[in-house]
Every structure is written in structure tokens, then in C-alpha cells.
Specification:
The complex is a heterodimer of chains A (about 300) and B (about 425). Chain A is mostly helical. Chain A has 12 helices and 2 strands. Chain A has a two-stranded antiparallel ribbon. The two termini of chain B are about 30 Å apart. In chain B, helix 3 runs parallel beside helix 5, helix 4 crosses helix 7 and helix 10 crosses helix 12. Chain B is about 25% helix and about 20% strand. Classes of the chains: A mainly alpha (about 300), B alpha/beta (about 425). The interface between A and B is large, with 38 and 66 residues.
């Protein structure tokens, strides 16, 4: 009778890493469908390019590093899909490939691979493209436009032309912007799915979004031209960032208090960038900046032991 | 705390059977926390049922009695679930007759010291798992305010405490009366989890009848969660007091005893019967049918299968002494049943998961009932960095298994923590 000898416990939850990654993909489906609906073949083309390049890069690097190729891990698929969703619809194929390769190679494997990266790979990929192709990354098209009529994002309209976008349009996603960030309703549905199924922890989205609400409400009272609470909640990459980027387990704090700190920090930076400098949107830079602070946050928010 | 799959059916509804005529008994000298007992018999001796075969060695130790009229075969190393191999008195019982233990009607005339001595002489230890000698726990250096009766049985599968509550509640209450007489607490809390309906019904009745001579008694129905039955968690759930790190329940003026211990105390005082039997749950998908059995201490698992008391449906891939969360995997059927063993599991379908890379999702941090950082321990132990572990309070870990259970990368965190604890203590 061959018996297995192992340390306790002898029972495991059904959660495993590939399962978590698949759930994130499922949660991203509403936003993905929305962007295919609004941007048609631009969206399909970009998503296909990003995912293919991300997965290929992952496989090649794992081969080079002589690591087992865990094809069912899905983490590269998540990175590719997330990268596609934060790029403008007209991003070219070579930019998409470069972005993915940068995200997976520099953003993930140079740090030691899954579990060791400091920065969110997808955001890092976009930051790289932002530096490499600043024009391409800031040119947006109007939704449903087949022949690429350029249009400005609601945040840019607000900041530079003082034109407000109707909240309903923002809510549904019928506006210019990066692929997956426009439709608030789809992102909320996906985000709630993540939280209810306990795939992502609720502390970061909660603290992040409530800080945004708090800051934008106060400023709106004194300076209504800065935009209403709903405007700030539903525009730009905020919801995508709050539900899918700031909840990336690898690059966020492990302590409970730390997660609140991380969320509040992201939100404050986002609002500062939205109100003051020359950039219309700052979700990407805010989260990347907070990613860099994670070791520090972990260190200073160690939980008090139960005693 | 975690919500686990309970797997308590059908064990919860199976009345205790008994198997009291084993052909061979293996009685390890170390069945309790503290120094092993000292042998006071030699091979070829014939001992009566209930006769002392090993005495206590110092204060924190316990005695051992012969569970049957038997011949001592040898005193040798034998399998032990915790110590792997340990010195053991091996006996061969003969004759079927059981000693008649006649219940005493009156024990009121016994004073505190006599009661304590009887408990000590009967070799009673904590029946919940740690097996700390009961007489030591019952002579605290400080006054105890709250006596807590632990009927949580929060480990999945196990049902021996539940059956004891359902079938012998009167005896348990009599045991509580005795303990109250010894430590004179201000109040008594009887704690059970809400997944024990029949016991709760009987408890409500017993509490409302007020026929026992107890101080302020209250019944606490706790929500079913793991590790609700852990001493520190239980005290916190009931009194909102936190036992200090490295401290004892005594430090917050509490004393926690398991259901089984009260029953053993009842038997010791009312029947003069030493601790030679206990109820054990046998469960798991490799058995034809799970069972709760009253057994002689020292009965080997092998004998239960040889005598067809238990039968395998399929070959087990894992045998566990205890529950699935904190139990110990056994390597054969040769292990004897000890005083503190409440259950054995025979599992067939075991998912063997490969360990993956930590994705720092912090599920272990969220699950840890002691607010520790399991992922940090595992990371450091893997890198042989033991110096920081003490600072990260690794010693506070109760090894409840919640972290490993929730880990999506299937990292055996408790395994690493055990290693870490060992090295952290060496420094």
C-alpha cells in the first residue's frame, strides 16, 4: 500500500494560479466585447496582435531560461489582453508587438518572471510605447468610425477645450479612448465579478474609487469646471485601472493596511495629474509609481500579530 | 477564518459502536505533552485491567494504565504518529471479561485535593489533540475567571466530540461540575459550532433545566469556521480577549478544555475508571463506511481492518491521524490509537499539486487567524534566511493550515513554516 506522506494540511482550495488568470480573462470579456462593438476590426486586430505577441514572447523566454513552459498559466494572455485594452484603437501592429515584447521581457522576465516583477507588465508596455510613439499613443478615433476620424478623449476635451461629455455616453462607452477603457458599465460588471468571486481583493478598488469620489466631489463644490464625480469615475482609464491593474496581486502590497494605502495613493496621484500637469490622464503613471512603492508600503504596514 | 467543506456527514449521525477486545495493544510511553512515562512493569508480567503500567515522571507527565487484563509482551520501539518511533509497551490481552465499573452516586464529599489526585492517578490528558496533562492544567497558579468547554470540533470529517455530546451529555456536565469544584470559575461557557444541531438541542435543554451545580453557565453557538476551535481563536470569539504571544489562556484568566476531557474526568471520578478508552472517528472516501468507535487506547489500525471492523472500499493513497487540516500523514497501518487521537482519515482521491511560484496574492495573509505573513516565511526559508524569522513572529504560528489551504500556487506554507520555526529557535 503506497501511501503519500506530506505535511499538513491535506486539503486544498480549488483556486490555483491558472484558474485565477482565466477568471480575470472572463471578467475582461464584457469590456472586450464593448471595444469590438465600438472599434470593430481595429479592436480585433489589436487584441489578436497583443495576445499572440505576448504569448510567443513568454514561450520563447521560458525556453531560453530553461523553465517549464506552463502553457495553461494564462498570465501572458492576461498581460497581452490588458495591454491591448489600454492602447488606442489605431495602434499599429509593430507597436503592439514591441509593447508586448517589452512588457513580457523587460517588465516581467528581467525581474525574475511571474511573481517577481515590480511593475505591472501591461502598464510598463504602454509606458514604453508612450515614450517610443508619443503621437500614435495620443491619437484617438471616434467610436464606430471605420475610416478613422480622429477624436479627443473626454478627459482631453475637458482639460484642453472645456467641453463636457454627457455622463450617459461615458457610462456606455460611446466615446473616444483606449480600446477597453471607454465603457464604464462593462468594466463595472467585470470588476464586480472579480470581487464577488473573490478573485481580486476588494480593498484596493474600494479605497481607490472612494478617494477619487471624495477628491472630485470636494473640488467640484468649489470649482465645478473641473468635472463632476461621475465624470471622473467613468472617464479615462480609471475603472480599468482600479479593477484590473491595481488589483494585480504581484505588484500590489500583501498587507491589508498596505492595500488601502496603495489605493488611496493611486487615487491621489491620478487626481493630481488630472487637475494640474499637461497630461489629460494619469492612471498609468500613478499605478506604476505606486508599484515602485510597494516594498516600502509592505515594510511599514506589517500587520499587528493577533495577541 | 475559513469556511471549509465540512464532510461531517454521515459520521455525525452514526452512533458509537464499540470494539473492546483487541488481540494486541501498543501503548507508547509518550502520549502526552511533557516527559514520557516511566515503565513499571516488565515483559511476561500479567497486569489487570486498569493497573498502572507506567508512572508519571515529574509534574508535567502522565500515567499509563493497562486497558485490558493482559500479558506484557515486550517494551520496544514502535510507530508513533508524532515521534515516528517511540518506546512502547506491547501487551497481549487475554480473557474477554471487562472490569465492572460501578457508578458512585455521591461524589460531593470529595474535596478539591482528592479530586485532583484522582484525575492525576487516572492518567487524564487533554483529549483535543495536544494531550497536555489535565491535572497540571487544573492547578493553575492564578485564579481562573472563565472556564470554556470546547465543543467546536472545527476540523472537517471528525465527529467523535459531537457523538460524545449527543450520547453522553449528562456525563459531560458531571465532569464540568467536578472541574468547577476544583478551579471555582466565575462563569462557564459551553461553546459549540452551529453545525451540530442535535447537540445544541440537548444543550439548550440541559441549560434550561438547571439541574447541575454550576456557576453562571452560558451556551455559545458559534458560526462554523476554521479554526474556531483553536484555543486563542475560541477565547477571542467568546470573550474578546487576546492571549499574549507565547502566553497561555491563563494570562487572560481563561481555561479551555475539550469535551472528551470532561467525559474522561467524569469516568475517573464517578467510575474510578482510568483513561483507557476513547471514541474515535474513522472516515474518508477509501472506507466502505465511516464509523465512530469506542476503542481501547493502544489498539492498532491494522487490527481494526484485520477484524473487519473497518473495510477498505479502495486502496487509500493517504492515511491521516487527525483531521485534514492539522493531521499527520501516516506511513502504514501499524500505528496505535493514542489518548488524544480523535479521528483517522483514509483518503483515496488526493490531488497532488505541484508547487508553483508565489504570485503574492496575499490570500495566506488574509486567511491567517494570527495576522502573520506566511508568504514571507516561505520566501525566507527557501533562501535559507532564518535570521529575520523571529522578528516576523514565526513562533506565533499555530500551524492551522489556513495559509496552505488557500494558496493558489499550492505552496506548502506550513511545511516551510515548520522548518523555519526549527531554525529560528536554534538562533
Amino acid at each position: 500500500m503506497p501511501l503519500i506522506i506530506s505535511a499538513s494540511p491535506h486539503s486544498n482550495s480549488r483556486f490555483n494560479t491558472p484558474f485565477l488568470m482565466r477568471q480575470v480573462i472572463i471578467a475582461l470579456l464584457p469590456a472586450t466585447f464593448a471595444c469590438v462593438f465600438f472599434s470593430k476590426y481595429h479592436a480585433l486586430f489589436l487584441i489578436a496582435n497583443c495576445i499572440t505577441s505576448a504569448v510567443l514572447t513568454e514561450i520563447i523566454i521560458l525556453k531560453i531560461r530553461k523553465k517549464p513552459i506552463v502553457a495553461n498559466d494564462f498570465s501572458a494572455v492576461v498581460t497581452g489582453l490588458l495591454l491591448a485594452l489600454i492602447l488606442p484603437p489605431t495602434t499599429t501592429w509593430y507597436a503592439a508587438w514591441l509593447g508586448s515584447i517589452f512588457a513580457i521581457f523587460i517588465g516581467k522576465h528581467l525581474f525574475g518572471g511571474i511573481g517577481f516583477n515590480i511593475f505591472n507588465p501591461a502598464l510598463l508596455g504602454r509606458a514604453f510605447l508612450m515614450a517610443a510613439y508619443p503621437k500614435m499613443l495620443t491619437t484617438y478615433i471616434q467610436p464606430f468610425s471605420v475610416d478613422t476620424i480622429s477624436g479627443a478623449t473626454p478627459l482631453a476635451l475637458k482639460k484642453f477645450s472645456h467641453i463636457a461629455t454627457p455622463t450617459l455616453k461615458l457610462f456606455l462607452g460611446n466615446v473616444s479612448g483606449s480600446l477597453g477603457e471607454t465603457s464604464a458599465i462593462c468594466l463595472i460588471v467585470g470588476g464586480l465579478y472579480l470581487l464577488i468571486r473573490k478573485i481580486a481583493d476588494w480593498r484596493i478598488p474600494l479605497s481607490l474609487l472612494s478617494t477619487i469620489i471624495f477628491i472630485s466631489a470636494i473640488t467640484y463644490i468649489f470649482k465645478p469646471e473641473t468635472g463632476s464625480v461621475f465624470f471622473h469615475l467613468f472617464s479615462g482609464g480609471l475603472l480599468l485601472g482600479a479593477f484590473f491593474m491595481a488589483t494585480d496581486p504581484v505588484t500590489t502590497p500583501v498587507t491589508k493596511t498596505g492595500r488601502y494605502v496603495f489605493g488611496v495613493g493611486c487615487a491621489m496621484l491620478i487626481m493630481v495629474i488630472r487637475y494640474f500637469p499637461g497630461l489629460p490622464e494619469g492612471v498609468m503613471y500613478s499605478i506604476l509609481f505606486m508599484n515602485a512603492l510597494v516594498p516600502l508600503i509592505n515594510k511599514y504596514t506589517r500587520p499587528k500579530r493577533f495577541a | 477564518m475559513l469556511k471549509l467543506q465540512e464532510h461531517k456527514e454521515p459520521q455525525h449521525n452514526l452512533p458509537c459502536e464499540s470494539f473492546l477486545n483487541p488481540e494486541r495493544l501498543c501503548l507508547p510511553l509518550s502520549q502526552h505533552t511533557g516527559k514520557p512515562s516511566l515503565v513499571c512493569v516488565k515483559p511476561q508480567d500479567v497486569v489487570e485491567q486498569g493497573q498502572v503500567i507506567a508512572t508519571e515522571d515529574g509534574h508535567i507527565s502522565s500515567r499509563l494504565h493497562s486497558p485490558k487484563k493482559a500479558k506484557i509482551v515486550s517494551i520496544d520501539d514502535w510507530f508513533h504518529p508524532v515521534l515516528k518511533r517511540a518506546k512502547c509497551i506491547i501487551t497481549e490481552p487475554f480473557g474477554d471479561e471487562e472490569h465492572k465499573f460501578t457508578p458512585k452516586s455521591k461524589v460531593d464529599n470529595l474535596n478539591k485535593e482528592t479530586l485532583l489526585k484522582m484525575i492525576k492517578d487516572c492518567g487524564i490528558v487533554g483529549m483535543g489533540g495536544a494531550a497536555f496533562p489535565t491535572h497540571v492544567k487544573l492547578s493553575p497558579p492564578k485564579k481562573i475567571e472563565t472556564l470554556i468547554i470546547n465543543g467546536c470540533e472545527c476540523e472537517p470529517y471528525l465527529a467523535s466530540d459531537y457523538r460524545l455530546m449527543v450520547e453522553n451529555l449528562d456525563a459531560i456536565f458531571k465532569g464540568i461540575e467536578i472541574v468547577c469544584k476544583i478551579i471555582e470559575p466565575k462563569n462557564v461557557i459551553f461553546a459549540v459550532e452551529e453545525n451540530k444541531p442535535e447537540a445544541i438541542k440537548k444543550l439548550h435543554l440541559a441549560v434550561s433545566l438547571k439541574k447541575y451545580n454550576l456557576p453562571k453557565l452560558s451556551l455559545a453557538i458559534l458560526k462554523t469556521a476554521y479554526p474556531q476551535g483553536g484555543e486563542k481563536q475560541l477565547i477571542y470569539s467568546l470573550t474578546k480577549r487576546k492571549v499574549p504571544s507565547g502566553g497561555l489562556p491563563l494570562d487572560v484568566s481563561c481555561l479551555v478544555h475539550n469535551i472528551g476531557t470532561f467525559f474522561a474526568i467524569y469516568e475517573a471520578i464517578y467510575l474510578d475508571k482510568p483513561l483507557i478508552e476513547r471514541v474515535v472517528t474513522f472516515a474518508g472516501d477509501a472506507l466502505v463506511s465511516p464509523k465512530n468507535i469506542r476503542l481501547k487506547i493502544g489498539t492498532t489500525l491494522r487490527e481494526l481492518f484485520d477484524k473487519k471492523i473497518l473495510e477498505f472500499k479502495t486502496e487509500p493513497s493517504k492515511i491521516i491521524c487527525g483531521g485534514p487540516m492539522m493531521g499527520i500523514a501516516l506511513e502504514s497501518l501499524e500505528y496505535p490509537i493514542l489518548k488524544a487521537n480523535g479521528g483517522f482519515l483514509f483518503l483515496n482521491k488526493i490531488k497532488t499539486c505541484e508547487e508553483n511560484t508565489c504570485i503574492r496574492c496575499a490570500r495566506c495573509v488574509d486567511a491567517c487567524p494570527l495576522n502573520l505573513l506566511p508568504l514571507e516565511y516561505a520566501k525566507r526559508v527557501k533562501r535559507d534566511e532564518y535570521n529575520k524569522l523571529g522578528e516576523l513572529n514565526i513562533k506565533d504560528c499555530i500551524e492551522c493550515g489556513c495559509c496552505s489551504y488557500t494558496c493558489p500556487a499550492k505552496i506548502p506554507l506550513v511545511h516551510y513554516i515548520k522548518i523555519g520555526k526549527k531554525y529560528a529557535s536554534n538562533n
